[in-house]
Design brief:
heterodimer; A: about 180 residues; mainly alpha; about 0% strand; elongated; B: about 170 residues; 5 helices
Chain lengths: ~180, ~170
């Protein structure tokens, strides 16, 4: 049995070395066939053309293409502008306020684009503060006037000597003072 | 280059680089790597920054730290003077923000101290820890549970409660 396995191994080895020799084909051998992977005709250069059936990816690729296009349409100019601003204009440095100088409201920001936005679009915070104070003042005056009106109504209704809460009476000259024949005339 | 941090608040630990005592003829790989890093990363980055700084050096804009005038407090406002209330409220909000930043700075100092000292921070950072505890206690007392809709008026009421509690305790 050991001799048989040794013979088998030897025959396999011989077949491996030279498979085309007449004595070494699979039919002759008692062993399992040993396939030679390196002698099979496999070429990866120009293979057989296959028609791969898969669902259409046209819509997906179109979506991604359009997404890329519309994002980059504004993305690239914005990136270029921000890079140029950062390189050529640069951020501001912190400094002490000089004597007797009142900085503009946009001089309190560091980045040049923030400064530009504060200068061009926003009102100064002082102006916003004053606007809020003005609104509060107007509302306060309105509330005071309403309270005063209520008080005036109360007093005039009570005393009756003001211009409000007067009921119009008929003309006194129309009263007939002549004696009547019956009590119900 | 931007201004450096406060060296007294964050002292650097003493340097522990050993004296160079080379006993072999072989090259030191740490030296080789550090030189490699210097030439491949440090030098290009520094030259780039110098180039950009020279472009920007012509007219450098400056920005300032805004200083606000002090206005009368909520306690000094007449009853019904809503504009005075508004100014006091805005001042209180600014002070609240400033106090939050103060707490953050103190916290940062304590953390830096702990990082520096390593395992012996309890002993070596006693001053920073003491300062932090005190600051936090005061902050909690003043602004503690006011919540998201905090206002100067609510803070004043909290102070009133504290004073009442202190008086009740003393009496």
């Amino acid at each position: 049995m050991v001799a048989m396995s040794v013979l088998r191994a030897a025959a396999a080895f011989a077949a491996r070395l030279s498979p085309l020799k007449s004595g070494n084909t699979a039919a002759n051998l008692l062993t399992r066939a040993i396939p030679r992977a390196d002698k099979v005709a496999v070429r990866w250069g120009h293979g057989k053309k296959m028609f791969v059936i898969k669902p259409s990816d046209y819509y997906d690729r179109r979506f991604l293409r359009l997404l890329q296009y519309y994002i980059l349409l504004t993305g690239i100019p914005v990136a270029v502008i921000v890079t140029c601003v950062n390189v050529f204009i640069g951020e501001a440095e912190l400094a002490e306020i000089p004597e007797g100088y009142e900085p503009e409201h946009w001089e309190y920001y560091q980045h040049p684009i923030s400064r530009w936005i504060a200068r061009t679009f926003y009102d100064s915070p002082v102006k916003d503060y004053e606007k809020m104070m003005a609104a509060i003042q107007i509302e306060k005056e309105k509330a005071d006037m309403r309270l005063a009106e209520l008080e005036v109504r109360r007093v005039m209704r009570q005393k009756g000597d003001g211009p409000w809460f007067q009921m119009e009476t008929m003309d006194k000259t129309l009263i007939d003072y002549s004696p009547k024949s019956t009590p119900d005339n | 280059m931007p201004s450096d941090y406060d060296k007294e608040a964050y002292p650097e630990p003493p340097r522990q680089t050993p004296v160079v005592d080379k006993q072999t003829a072989l090259p030191n790989p740490a030296l080789i790597l550090s030189k490699l890093f210097y030439y491949s990363v440090d030098l290009p980055v520094t030259t780039f920054r110098d180039v950009v700084d020279s472009i920007r050096a012509k007219n450098k804009p400056v920005y300032y730290h805004q200083k606000f005038r002090r206005v009368p407090d909520l306690t000094e406002c007449q009853e019904g003077d809503y504009t005075c209330y508004y100014e006091a409220e805005m001042q209180w909000r600014r002070d609240y923000k400033v106090d939050q930043e103060i707490v953050k700075v103190v916290q940062e100092r304590m953390r830096a101290c702990q990082q520096r000292e390593g395992f012996s921070y309890n002993q070596n950072c006693a001053k920073e820890i003491e300062q932090f505890n005190e600051t936090m206690k005061n902050f909690q007392l003043r602004y503690g549970d006011l919540g998201a809709y905090a206002s100067g008026r609510k803070c004043l009421m909290k102070q009133k409660e504290r004073m009442i509690a202190a008086q009740a305790q003393n009496a």
